[in-house]
Structure formats: structure tokens, C-alpha cells
Sequence to fold (160 residues):
Amino acid sequence: MKARVIVTLKSGILDPQGKAIEGALRSLGIAGVVSVRQGKVFDIEIAEGDRAVAEARLKEAAEKLLANTVIENYDVKVMG
Amino acid sequence: MKARVIVTLKSGILDPQGKAIEGALRSLGIAGVVSVRQGKVFDIEIAEGDRAVAEARLKEAAEKLLANTVIENYDVKVMG
Fold:
């Protein structure tokens, strides 16, 4: 099964990288940019036929390794 | 409007970071991991009422700055 885990900073956590991109987009002339927040995406293939089991494993992966849950949120989507 | 731009490596482009994560997940005991590819996500807020215009601007942003289109694909989703 294919899955996508998206890890984003919690609101309130400063994102200097996002700020830098925001500034760069403005100086490139992209109009209307209000804010940019950068996160990470993990495209994971997992050998597991049961959707619920795959999701549980990926949540464990996110908790243990992919996200720092003190400052980041994660979202697991199993695409089947 | 809120939008999400996801940038991923094209298939065939080596992803040593993804490989490292793959190995780490295995040694953490997450069963069944076949492959991991890492990408980037940008959550962008753009002051523009017209969905099509917002999408066009974000595509321009992806082409000019967010993605290296030689080795990366991007996907723009305007969430309204």
C-alpha cells in the first residue's frame, strides 16, 4: 500500500525557513503572498494488505521518527 | 486563499535521505516498509479571490523557486 505522511509545524512555532521563502517569493514578484510555512512529506510504500494495520504502523513511524510531536503535527493518508 | 504545494523527487532520482529513513524505520521495528521518498510541502496563504489566478501564481512560484523542475515534480492544490 502507498501512503503519504505530511509533517507540518504546529501553529505558534516560528518557521524562519518559511519566512525566507515568503520574502523570496515577494522579491520574485509573486503577488499576494501572505504567509508560507514549510513542512515535510514522506511517500511510503508499505507491504501490508490491511488498511487499518498499515495506518497504525505509519502512525507509529510518525510518532517515533518522522515527526517531532513537541513542535510538529502529522497527518497519515493511506492511498491503497 | 489557502493552498498547499507538494514537491517530490521525480522517479529515478536517487533519494539518500529517504533511504536513510527507510533503514531507520526498519531498525525501529516498523514492519513492512518497502520504500520511503522524502519531499517538501509548502502551506501558502495568498490574498487572491479568484481560484484560477491563485493557482496560476502558485504554479509560477513552484516553477521559479519552490521546485527544481529538472529533478522534482510539484503539485498545487488550492483549498479555498
Notes: Chain B touches chain A at residues 6, 8, 18, 21, 24-25, 28, 30-48, 54, 57, 60-61, 64-66 (CB under 8 Å). The radius of gyration of chain B is 16 Å. DSSP finds two helices and three strands in chain B.
